[in-house]
Design brief:
This protein has 273 residues and is an all-alpha fold. The protein is built from eleven helices and no strands. It is elongated. The two termini are 39 Å apart. The mean pLDDT is 85.
Amino acid sequence: MDLTSIVGIVVGVVLIIFIGIGPAELMNFWDPPSVAIVLGGTLAAVVASYPLSVLKATLKHTKILFQGNRYNIRNLIDVLVEMAEIARKNGLLALEEKANQQEDMFFKQGLMLIVDATEPEEVRSIMENELDIMDQRHEECLGIYERAAGVAPAFGMIGTLVGLVNMLNSMDMESGASATIGPAMATALITTFYGCILAHLFFSPIAKKLRIRNEEELLYKQILIEGILAIQSGDNPKFLKEKLLTFLSQNEREKMLEGEGNEKKKGNKSRKK
């Protein structure tokens, strides 16, 4: 479980309230009309920008934000290498049973394509097309939060302008109303404050986290495509592993190789016993 989103937002709110504003002055920053302008205007702009079918997907995003990285790349590489060994010994048809055991439909589809002797170009085309469609769908969903992050400060400025106009219209210099300029100006600026908080502490971090999750899934499936095509072409399992390791960072490669080294040492010790 990834709790960084909650931790970041909570820490940001606490610092703003208790260090920046101060609990005693907190009510100075509460203004219901400003909340209505900024939050209501932002939600209205987002709803007007997307069809209902895309907006419904926002209900699933909370789970995605907190579930962490679901894709174990190192385990995937081990599975693909194992399948490459099976295919070299027993042929591609031997992978049909393995395909039926897969819960990931993308993985299963790729294996069944090579089992059915589909041309490599067609396999790549089908799988990459599905990957592109998935990426477009995810971009639409995270675009909701990027859109909200973009319009929230704008509605904060709109609220400020509304407050300034009302303040100037109600001024009466002869009756001494100039004394109210300070408080009225402060109220007008609260909407800008709200807009910046919503954009930079809520919407932008959510959009960034969803983009990271999308990139993790894209990497997983890109490795999967390359692995399946290599199995189909009969690549040596050791060469396949080296090829797939290039998708990982240097640190990830070292961790994977260290893990294999530890397993070999354990195996040798058990044999000696």
